[in-house]
Write a structure and sequence with these properties.
By secondary structure, the chain is an alpha/beta fold. The chain contains five helices and twelve strands. The strands form two sheets. The chain has a nine-stranded mixed beta sheet. β7 and β8 form a beta hairpin. Bound molecules: glutamine (GLN).
Length: about 190
């Protein structure tokens, strides 16, 4: 099983490292044809607008959207969550628009002064979380489950084949959220090959 990491901008290396540490074959994805054969893809943190501009230029934006709609599992962190969201309340564009949540950009934590907190996650207990100009989840659709909360705000959500965190699980050394995604990918794989 191979998991890709969207590699146009952002903290790509950190995600590749966590996946490798967990014994999963991982590779960067820069071009549409590199989506072939993946069990899942991680969309890292970074700058969603910059990533989108670069993805549009290479055709990766449309190809990734189609792949996700066709069942490719995706895990977005921070900017990656914004890319997945159906609506961005304080930005005129929608990016991939596949995850039924509305997010507001740049509301939790500052760039220099990241905000660290414990997130209460279903079945996982408390998770350490780092927020860097992170999106706030403002609406969640009926098919979306909030798996983790900061106070009463959802910060980890799941909708079928999609997982998204407004924080950065790749920066804490706690690999449980990545493990959750890997499990989703393994299930997806066995299902496809059944
Ligand atoms: N502020 C960034 C954006 O709007 C997200 C920040 C991050 O990924 N750390 O895309």
């Amino acid at each position: 099983m191979t998991v890709g990491v969207l590699a146009v901008q952002g903290d790509v290396r950190e995600h590749l490292r966590v996946l490798e540490r967990l014994g999963v074959a991982a590779r960067p994805v820069r071009r549409p044809e590199e989506l072939a054969g993946l069990a899942g893809i991680v969309l890292p943190g970074g700058e969603s607008t910059a990533m989108w501009r670069l993805m549009r230029a290479t055709g990766l934006a449309g190809a990734l959207r189609n792949a996700i709609l066709a069942g490719l599992l995706a895990f977005g962190t921070c900017a990656g969550m914004i890319l997945l969201a159906r609506r961005v309340t304080n930005w005129p564009e929608t990016f991939l628009g596949v995850l039924d949540i509305a997010v507001e950009r740049n509301v939790i934590g500052r760039q220099v002064d990241s905000f660290e907190a414990q997130v209460a996650a279903n079945g996982l207990g408390e998770l350490p979380a780092v927020f860097l100009r992170a999106p706030g989840v403002r609406e969640i659709g009926p098919g979306v489950r909030a798996l983790g909360r900061l106070g009463d705000q959802p910060v980890l959500v799941e909708q079928g084949s999609l997982l998204a965190a407004s924080f950065h699980p790749e920066l804490t050394g706690d690999t449980r959220v990545h493990e959750m995604f890997i499990q989703m990918c393994r299930k997806g794989e066995s299902w496809q090959h059944a």
